[in-house]
Amino acid sequence: MAAAAPMTSVAALLAVQDEGDATSRRRRRAVQRGTDLLDRLDEIRHALLTGNMPAARLQALADALTRDRQAIDDPRLAEVLADIELRCAVELAKRGIAAVPG
User: pLDDT tens across 29-57, in order?
Assistant: First the structure.
């Protein structure tokens, strides 16, 4: 019976480590997703400044933001995504195109 206690402790430590690894992987994925989005936003900013942003791309961005915002738990992040979505709608309106709800 004395040998069973250390094995239980090792199993518990491994379980905690596995949970930590899963959390770490989720965090890395979230950071990567955020980095990718920031890169895309920078490309979009440049395209808007140069006037080379196709309306279809703006609409696709607005649709993607709508989907992403609905899946976000953080109210501040959802607000930022809503602001970007609004900017897309404004840019479409400048071109005489009504934004189609995603």
Answer: 777 877 777 787 787 788 878 888 888 88
What are 14-34's pLDDT values in tens digits?
Answer: 676 666 677 777 777 777 877
Q: Are 62 and 88 in contact (CB under 8 A)?
A: yes
Q: Is the dihedral of CA 44, 50, 51, 52 positive or negative?
A: negative
Amino acid, res. 36:
D
Q: What angle do CA 41, 54, 63 make, to 5 degrees?
A: 60
Quick one: CA dihedral 9, 10, 14, 15, positive or negative? negative
Nearby residues of 97 by Cβ (< 8 Å), 6 or more positions away: 55, 59
AA letter at 16: V
How far apart, in whole angstroms, are the C-alpha atoms of residue 30 and residue 24?
10
Among 71, 65, 59, 67, which residue's Cα sits nearest to residue 85? 65
Question: What residues have CB less than 8 Å from 42, skipping those under 6 apart?
Answer: none
